[in-house]
Amino acid sequence: MKLILHDLGEGYAELLERKADRVIAADGKYAPCQGCFGCWTKHPAECFMKDKLQQVCRQLGEADETVVVTKNLYGGYSTAVKNVLDRSIGTSTPFSTYRGRQMHHTLRYGKKDLWKVVVYGDITEAEKATFTYTAERNAINEGYERSQVLFLKDLTELEAAL
Fold first, then answer.
1. pTM for the whole thing?
2. 147-157 tens-digit pLDDT
3. Which helix (H) or strand (E) covers residue 126, if one does?
4. Nearest to 134 by CA among 70, 88, 62, 80
5. Over 90: is that where the pLDDT of 25 sits?
6. Any idea what DSSP says for residue 32?
7. Which run of H or of E encompasses 143?
8. Cβ atoms within 10 A of the Cβ of 7, count?
9. CA-to-CA distance for 134 and 106, rounded, in angstroms?
10. Cα–Cα dist 87/81, whole Å
11. In this structure, what DSSP letter does residue 43 have?
12. What is the CATH number of the domain that holds 95?
């Protein structure tokens, strides 16, 4: 299953729905993570907050390919996308294991194929390097076999990037 997480406006909904099995809009119409770790321990992979991100851990966990479309924010995800990713900590468990000779949390949903990040907006070379490194680390942490980062000059290139 292919999932797209994005911070784009409603004008891109039709395009994104054509390109993915599931779409999550990081539109800010949800509460930020409270850091309670309930999605890890009390009710695995489900947030206690009753909003549109209550099942986000399961949605992201079930995806074989995740595409994150985000505006550049100093070499990192936009605030709205980062808030969604913060709410998805329940895709792993609180237990630890070694992957690639490094300590990581045990995966709740198993290995996946591709963590792809599509970045738009002004970006420097240093920010590109930061974004690439962050995407690689996110892919490892979430159990993806590979990662890819694409930098768009403008959103007219979006369809080809997806």
1. 0.94
2. 999 999 999 99
3. helix 125-142
4. 70
5. yes
6. P
7. none
8. 23
9. 19
10. 10
11. S
12. 3.40.50.360
- Going along the chain, which residue ranges are E strands? 2-6, 22-25, 65-71, 92-99, 102-107, 112-120, 144-151
Number of domains in the chain: 1
The domain of 67 spans 2-161
Q: Is 120 exposed, middle or buried (0-12, 13-18, 19+ CB in 10 A)?
A: buried
Q: Which tokens sit at 142?
A: 């979430």
List beta partners, residue 62: none
Spatial neighbors of 14 by CB under 8 A, at least 6 apart, are none
d(CA 61, CA 90): 9
Using one digit for the tens of pLDDT, what is the confidence trace for 35-79? Answer: 999 998 899 999 999 999 999 999 999 999 999 999 999 999 999
